[in-house]
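SEQUENCE-TO-STRUCTURE ENTRY
===========================
Question of interest: how does this chain fold, as expressed in backbone structure tokens?
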Amino acid sequence: MGKEKIHDLIDMLVEKYPAAFSVRNRKPLKIGIDQDLIAVDPEIAALGFSARRKLFQAYCGHRFYLRNVIAGADRVDLNGVPTGKPTDDQIEDAKRRLNGYYEYLKSKGEVVVKAKAVKKPLPAPGPRLIGLADLRAAVAARKAATA
């Protein structure tokens, strides 16, 4: 199974189960969530064992996922319900794997920017942008005014 197929499967999971799966904010998943997916999703059930393993290795081995494990975020099930926290051993393993990834990038001569533990406050919200619903409402109001 190629990288493109794995990314397509991850996109499918993000679309079907947005409470558990995300591309940018990868929350730690419940232990055994693969069995839950097999029970409820025929597309995942149709995949072979090695394909499912590659899928979860790609998802759970991503630096965004590892960062959330290190931060101690709650593990979630398919509905986004917290099911516990990562253990100390799992956090240490995530640190080791993430540091290995950074070392790999350094060996290739790429610049490594590690995420800071302190979150920056969000900037003050700017002016609200006009969306499609606003435009439709304006058209409807104009039509009502001219009629």
About this structure: The chain is about 55% helix and 5% strand. The chain has a mean pLDDT of 87.
